[in-house]
Write a structure and sequence with these properties.
Elements: E1 5-6, E2 25-30, H1 36-52, E3 56-59, H2 66-74, E4 77-80, E5 91-94, H3 101-109, E6 113-116, H4 120-134, E7 138-142, H5 148-154, E8 161-164, E9 181-185, H6 191-204, H7 218-230, E10 236-240, H8 246-257, E11 263-266, E12 282-287, H9 293-305, E13 311-315, H10 330-333
Parallel strand pairs: 2-12, 2-13, 3-4, 3-5, 5-6, 7-8, 7-9, 10-11, 10-12
Antiparallel strand pairs: 1-11
Helix pairs in contact: 4-5, 7-8
The chain binds iron/sulfur cluster.
Iron/sulfur cluster (SF4) binds near residues 96, 217, 219, 220 and 247.
Protein name: 4-hydroxy-3-methylbut-2-enyl diphosphate reductase
GO biological process, one term: terpenoid biosynthetic process
Family: Belongs to the IspH family.
């Protein structure tokens, strides 16, 4: 069964590049794929496996990518939903999306040896939630209900945080003091939709404070910017990523919003339907922040077999950020 999400919404205008006599080409978004937080989280599990041997337990998917999870599972990682599934005294890694203080406590109660792979940029949002809760603000957390990151952040200050799941949820928000309200956000949202939500919140609460710095992380923003740059020229955009990857799904939406005639999400090259390529001249390719490059290479090879061998990079930023491994594994990286 294909896991492609058919988000082609039937935009009818023709792209300039759609002329039948123009050459077939691929526009390849740069940056794409692994961000610094995902790179660190995956390496954390690999180093933990080397140091402690299998099995290693990981609470939730270490990052939201099928291939990464299946590969680690084959190497001896056991993924669990909660720490009470981990045998007492075992090693457990917390995923890049972060956990609430309750999860830390429950792991401590079971004498688990924890390694925290929470992305430092998620930890930053946790710190903001704690700080503004201490100052007794109402915190409006913009994010997707049920997403692990949102659960972890909200868990830092459950009495102060309210989830706002998009612009339409704004009408339901109530606060104690309109002069002590701040918004924070999940790190992997659509920048444009989040700004729309903030605008609507501000119409209701004119004194609404902004976060001290951007919560939507550099990687999410950079990948959306690159897609926006190439999408207007694309008959089709293929985003490599998993359905449960928030930032990957956002890339499909951003591509369509920026003018791509169709956009699909695939985990693997084998999910690309040849029918999508009919009458198409320019294909944009990108990948979510949890996607290893080997999966993009697979899609490029498949497209080359269909005559799309001309690959042109569309570069909008160069990323150099690298995060240190969790303290207990730093020696392993050296
Ligand atoms: S997408 Fe952003 S917040 Fe999430 S792991 Fe990557 S760098 Fe960290």
């Amino acid at each position: 069964m294909s896991s492609a999400i058919p988000l082609n919404v039937g935009i009818t205008r023709s792209a300039v590049s759609g002329a039948a006599d123009s050459p077939k080409r691929v526009l390849l978004a740069e940056p794409r794929g692994y961000c610094a937080g995902v790179d660190r989280a995956v390496e954390t599990v690999e180093k933990a496996l080397e140091k402690h041997g299998a099995p290693i337990y990981v609470r939730k998917e270490i990052v939201h990518n099928r291939h990464v999870v299946e590969t680690l599972r084959e190497r001896g990682v056991i993924f669990v939903d909660e720490t009470d599934e981990v045998p007492e005294g075992s090693v457990v890694v917390f995923s890049a999306h972060g956990v609430s203080p309750m999860v830390h406590s429950s792991a401590a109660e079971r004498s688990l040896h924890t390694i925290d792979a929470t992305c430092p940029l998620v930890t930053k949002v946790h710190q903001e939630a704690k700080r503004f809760a201490r100052d007794d603000f109402d915190i409006l957390l913009i994010g997707h209900e049920g997403h692990e990151e949102v659960e972890g952040t909200a868990g830092e200050a459950p009495d102060h945080v309210q989830l706002v799941d998009g612009p339409d949820a704004v009408d339901n928000v109530t606060v104690r003091d309109e002069n002590k309200v701040i918004w924070l956000s999940q790190t992997t949202l659509s920048v444009d939709e989040t700004m729309e939500t903030v605008q609507r919140l501000r119409e209701r609460f004119p004194s609404l404070q902004d976060p001290p710095s951007d919560d939507i992380c550099y990687a999410t923003q950079n990948r959306q910017t690159a897609v926006k740059a190439m999408a207007p020229e694309c008959d089709l955009v293929i985003v490599v990523g998993s359905r449960n990857s928030s930032n990957s799904v956002r890339l499909v939406e951003v591509a369509l919003g920026a003018g791509a005639r169709a956009a699909y999400l695939v985990d693997y090259a084998r999910e690309v339907d040849p029918a999508w390529l009919e009458g198409v001249r320019t294909i944009g390719i990108t990948s979510g922040a949890s996607v290893p490059e080997i999966l993009v290479e697979g899609v490029l090879e498949l497209l080359a077999d269909h005559g799309f061998g001309d690959v042109q990079p569309v570069t909008t930023a160069n990323e150099t950020l690298v995060f240190a491994l969790p303290r207990e594994l730093r020696a392993a990286r050296a």
